[in-house]
Design goal:
- The chain is α+β, with helices and mostly antiparallel strands and 273 residues long.
- The chain is built from eight helices and 14 strands.
- It has two domains: 145 residues, Fructose-1,6-Bisphosphatase, subunit A, domain 1 (Fructose-1,6-Bisphosphatase, Chain A, domain 1, 2-Layer Sandwich), CATH 3.30.540.10; 113 residues, D-Maltodextrin-Binding Protein, domain 2, CATH 3.40.190.80.
- 37% of the residues lie in helices and 26% in strands.
- A hairpin with a 2-residue loop joins strand 5 and strand 6.
- The N and C termini lie far apart (36 Å).
- Bound molecules: adenosine-2'-monophosphate (2AM) and calcium ion (3 copies).
Length: 273
């Protein structure tokens, strides 16, 4: 439970300012030369901008709540995910969609969530290129800038636009993702792969997508998106209908009307018993 709503509003307002400022500085430098490093394989990238945005966010968010715990992709990844002992935890993805960012494909975001012990307090995902902020305070609805958003009302897979994400190392290694993709392709109206899970989840929340599934994601990829989708009236679970506990897991997100059909289809394609 959030004990102090006054502080929540203050933290939300300040975090919003911090993420918008970080987004503006990335936007101003989009076409400047970046230093690109690979991490685990040739598709796993990080740039100097990812690192600079992360340290900027940490510096200002720690100032806002001194002693808060950090779970951040580039410097505190292994802190995931024992929030139980921590009054406040920031979960941060400095650039979600780094490969898009490197290629100037205009789908990448900054994502910041605040937890109070195990409960999310609020989340913010900024579409950097378009300067659109998706946000939600737990229990208060989800917003696209200042507009309240809702998941779509489409009620069959046949009429749905569905997005997915499969890291290419996973594609090379196993067949489960392929089975799901090949099987869903003919069943949906359309399939998209944007390369930013934070934005895909925000799009499910606005109803611009009807569903989304992704191979194992990390807490910073899904924390804000799950809140957005749930606050907008949709559902996020793993294969087994369990609400995400922020462990690395598959994510299946959709509006309420297609959820049963969507997850049944994924489970049977992936041969989940
Ligand atoms: P990133 O850009 O912050 O790394 C693309 O499918 C989405 O998955 C992006 O949100 C991306 O986040 C994330 N992602 C990148 N590499 C991944 C990996 N190896 N496993 C799982 N997710 C990954
Ligand atoms: Ca990454
Ligand atoms: Ca990410
Ligand atoms: Ca990232």
């Amino acid at each position: 439970k959030v004990k102090n709503p006054v502080a929540t509003d203050l933290y939300f307002k300040e975090a919003k300012h911090v993420i918008l400022t970080a987004g503006e500085s990335v936007r101003n430098e989009i076409f400047q030369k970046k230093i690109i490093h690979t991490k685990e394989n040739f598709t796993d990238l990080v740039t100097n901008v990812d690192r600079e945005v992360e340290s900027y966010l940490i510096k200002h968010l720690i100032k806002l709540i001194p002693d808060s715990h950090l779970v951040t992709e580039e410097t505190n990844a292994t802190n995931a995910i024992a929030f139980d002992q921590q009054p406040y935890t920031w979960v941060i993805d400095p650039i979600d969609g780094t490969m898009n960012f490197v290629h100037h494909f205009p789908r990448y975001a900054i994502s910041v969530a605040l937890y109070h012990y195990n409960d999310i307090v609020f989340g913010l995902t900024l579409d950097i290129v378009n300067n659109i902020l998706y946000s939600a305070i737990k229990g208060q609805g989800a917003y696209m800038n200042d507009t309240l958003i809702h998941t779509s009302t489409i009620d069959s897979l046949k009429h749905s636009l569905i997005a997915y994400g499969i890291p290419s190392a996973e594609w090379r290694a196993t067949s489960r993702s392929k089975q799901i993709l090949f099987s869903l392709f003919g069943e949906c109206q359309g399939i998209r792969n944007s390369g930013s899970s934070c934005l895909d989840l925000a799009f499910v929340a606005t109803g611009q997508l009807d569903g989304f599934w992704h191979y194992h994601l990390k807490p910073w990829d899904v924390a804000v998106g799950i809140l957005l989708v749930e606050e907008a009236g949709g559902i996020c679970t793993n294969f087994n209908h369990q609400i995400s506990n922020l462990k690395d897991d598959w994510i299946i997100a959709s509006n309420k009307p297609i959820y049963d059909e969507f997850i049944s289809h994924i489970r049977s394609a992936a041969d989940v018993k």
